[in-house]
Amino acid sequence: MGLVVITGVAGFLGSHLADYYLDAGWQVRGVDNLIGGSHENVPEGVEFFEYDLLNLDSIKPVFEGADLVIHAACTAYEGLSVFSPSLVVANTMQISVNAMTAAIQNRVPKFVYMSSMARYGDNGGVQFDESLTCKPQDPYGISKKAAEDVLRNLAEVHGVELVILVPHNIVGARQKFDDPFRNVASIMTNRMLQGKQPIIYGDGSQQRCFSFIQDVVKPIVVAAELPEAVGEVINIGPDESPITILELAQELADIIGFDLDPIFMPGRPQEVHVALCSSDKARRLLGYETTVGLREGLTELVEWIRPRVKEFEYHLPIEIMSHKTPKTWLNRLI
Fold first, then answer.
1. What does the pLDDT read at residue 1?
2. pLDDT tens figures, 324-333
3. What's the CA gap between 126 and 137, in Å, rounded?
């Protein structure tokens, strides 16, 4: 056991990781600027710092004495990044460089970076495995991959053990469901529970797989401890149950008991049509397995959101407004 620093600890994934490490007897220190997180998510027992990772001087002391850093903080907005690139790139790439810098300054031996399947971009519908050439399609994906490259360079120079993990489309309890810019399953659920039809961009034939939080935490923890994971990029998430966005809406409507008649809007610029990751490497190295099925996981999501339903919060600025900016955001239609 030791001290782990978790960035984004007030967010969805970060708070669940904190739960695990606290239960395992670790000392947990967390940092979050609360852009996408909440004080309510921070588990009791976490030494919490409400700092912005963009401020290197303020965060340096947070990393002092740490044995491990898990960098889960990020403004993970693929679609929005085309219209708010400054916000998203700064809070994706720059905060990652700052977190690694603070870790190096404090001689932290191991750093686990949460990347994104957006790193792969458009690969012509081929299932994403870690050997593919990355072709990110938006500022978010580009900055995620660029951050990987800078972190790898710094880790090699300064002797930090770096692990790069690629979780994809995680859903579950504590996910921010009142965010109109991301988390399609949660947005649809929140709208339907309010009696509103879900909004679908394009024709809904885009394909995704969804990871349930219960199946994501364990492989991250294993990767953080496994010597064979150092220097590797590893996808984490299911590859058995791909689903289209329209099928997702139908599944959620069936669980909720909602009469579905989706609202179709024009497709969003740079959206990757087929984004499915292979889990073979995670199964081989980390013993990854899917224990929560799609229907079960979506049902849990619905039942978590149901007593908490609320209006959507347009909490982030849109930096570029043009004829390509989705009207759902400009006119606050979600």
1. 85
2. 999 999 999 9
3. 15
Residue 304 parent element (H or E): helix 294-305
Phi, psi of 217 (to 5 degrees): -65, -45
For residue 303, give its domain range.
Answer: 171-208+240-277+291-330
**286 in a domain, yes or no?**
no
Task: Give the chain's length.
Answer: 334
Count of domains for the chain: 2
Kindly report, residue by residue over 247-259, the tens digit of the pLDDT: 999 999 999 999 9
Across the chain, what does the average pLDDT equal?
97
Are 103 and 248 found together in one domain?
no
The pTM assigned to this predicted structure is: 0.97
Amino acid at 236: I
The Cβ-side half-sphere exposure at 265, using a 13 Å CA radius, reads 16
Q: DSSP readout, 13-29? A: HHHHHHHHHHHTT-EEE
Work out the burial of residue 255: count CB atoms within 10 Å of its CB; fewer than 13 is exposed, 13-18 middle, 19 or more buried: middle
